[in-house]
Every structure is written in structure tokens, then in C-alpha cells.
Recover the amino acids of this structure.
């Protein structure tokens, strides 16, 4: 199922793993493996990348970061192919992402000269970047009747779909809210009227897609391979400033 109609599709620079993700999903379509199995697989891939960063194996770390990004897309593709939407899977995916982001940046800090405070700023910046991208993207998908597991505002526990337990949804929603609420509230404070303005143009969404987790992991992977690990944390701290620019463009032209 396409998330957006053709006229409003944009070049998503964070979604480069989608073709491979679709192949994986089609391969798993008739197997017993579920989207949650794929989510667990990308978690393992991310942890292998963390180990490789700490051990100084840049190429291996880059490989598993890219694999993590591909598998991160594959779980959603498998859910759509099997027609098994799941709030459990949606929240587990997000919780796994933020936890992996934290340990990835800790691994980079451990194996570089960056200070812990700059590392924390970089991690917070990455989360705010991703939140803005997801915020704008979910607004678009909701306007065109996109997938029902994504909501612009995560302000109450959703009802479980058939095949999943409400208890699991409740637990994961609370964990999701605890981890993401500060970032969601910050972005909403900065651009609370985004859902009521004009449609975002494709070029703006493409630019904002550089805030997507897939693109962030790609940047980390490339900098690791070319021997510029020391630039990773300063880069993400500096690039967070683009949040203000993208929001200013959205408010100034597309209100």
C-alpha cells in the first residue's frame, strides 16, 4: 500500500533501503516470521554495529548500520503485505530505534575525543530532527488516508488491532510516550499549526527527509568508512540548526 498518492510522493533520502526491504518482505510473506521478528532482527543488527564501532571495525559498523536501516523498513513492508497492522509493532519499532540511537552515539563518544555533553546534544538533536520529519510526514499521510497505525498526536493509548493484546499495546505506548514525549512536545511547540497550513511541497519534504533515521545512519556509516568519525557528533549538533530553517520556510510560505 502506498503511503501517499502519486502527485504528493517525494524523493525520500532516508528511504534508500526500501527496494531491498520490499524484497525481504516478499521473501518472508509466506513464512511464519512476523514484522516483530524483523524488528528484533534490526535491533540485533544495530547492536552488532555498536560493537563494531567500539572495536574500531569501521566497514563492519557501516555495513550493519545500513542493514539496520533496510530491516527497519522491512518490518513495515511485511506488515502491509501480510495485512497485519499492529500498534505493538509500531511502538516496539520506535522504542528500539531510540534505544539504538542512544547506544550508537555512546559508542561513537567512547571511541572518539568528543565530550559526553556534546554527545548528549547530538543525540537530542538527532531525535528532534527525526521528530520533525515524522511530524510532517504523518500529517501528509493522514490527509490522504494513510496507514492507521501512525498518528499526528500520540496523546492516548490506541485500541489494539485484532491479533494483538491490549496489554502489550498499553505497556509499549507508555514506554514510547516516556521516551518520545519531550521531543514531540518540543517540535509541536515550534510548529503547532503545521497540520492546518497548506500542503508541504515535495521539494521541502525531500529536504526534511535528511532528518530521517535512514539518512542519519547513512551519514554515520559514510563518515566511519572515510575515517572521519571525529566529525560525526559535531555534524549532528550543527545540523540540528536546520530545524529552525525548515520550520521558518514552512511557516513563511506554506501557512
Amino acid at each position: 500500500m502506498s503511503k501517499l498518492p502519486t502527485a504528493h510522493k517525494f524523493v525520500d533520502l532516508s528511504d534508500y533501503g526500501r527496494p531491498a526491504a520490499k524484497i525481504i518482505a516478499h521473501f518472508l510473506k509466506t513464512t511464519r516470521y512476523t514484522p516483530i521478528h524483523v524488528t528484533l532482527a534490526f535491533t540485533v543488527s544495530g547492536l552488532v554495529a555498536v560493537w563494531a564501532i567500539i572495536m574500531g571495525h569501521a566497514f563492519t559498523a557501516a555495513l550493519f548500520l545500513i542493514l539496520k536501516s533496510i530491516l527497519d523498513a522491512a518490518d513495515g513492508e511485511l506488515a502491509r503485505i501480510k495485512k497485519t497492522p499492529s500498534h505493538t509493532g509500531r511502538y516496539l519499532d520506535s522504542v528500539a530505534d531510540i534505544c539504538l540511537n542512544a547506544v550508537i552515539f555512546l559508542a561513537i563518544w567512547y571511541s572518539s575525543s568528543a565530550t559526553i555533553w556534546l554527545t548528549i546534544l547530538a543525540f537530542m538533536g538527532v531525535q528532534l530532527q527525526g521528530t520533525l520529519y515524522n511530524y510532517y510526514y504523518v500529517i501528509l499521510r493522514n490527509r490522504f488516508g494513510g496507514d492507521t497505525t501512525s498518528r499526528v498526536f500520540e496523546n492516548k493509548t490506541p485500541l489494539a488491532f485484532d491479533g494483538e493484546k491490549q496489554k502489550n499495546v498499553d505497556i509499549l505506548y507508555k514506554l514510547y510516550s516516556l521516551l518520545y514525549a519531550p521531543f514531540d512536545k518540543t517540535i509541536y511547540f515550534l510548529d503547532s499549526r503545521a497540520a492546518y497550513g497548506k500542503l508541504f511541497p515535495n521539494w521541502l519534504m525531500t529536504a526534511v527527509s535528511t532528518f530521517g533515521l535512514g539518512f542519519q545512519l547513512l551519514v554515520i556509516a559514510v563518515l566511519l568508512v572515510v575515517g572521519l568519525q571525529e566529525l560525526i557528533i559535531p555534524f549532528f549538533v550543527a545540523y540540528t540548526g536546520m530545524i529552525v530553517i525548515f520550520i521558518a520556510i514552512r511557516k513563511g510560505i506554506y501557512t
Remarks:
- The chain has a mean pLDDT of 92.
- DSSP finds ten helices and no strands in the chain.
- The chain has one domain: 6-253.
- Residues 6-253 form a domain with the Four Helix Bundle (Hemerythrin (Met), subunit A) fold (CATH 1.20.120.1760).
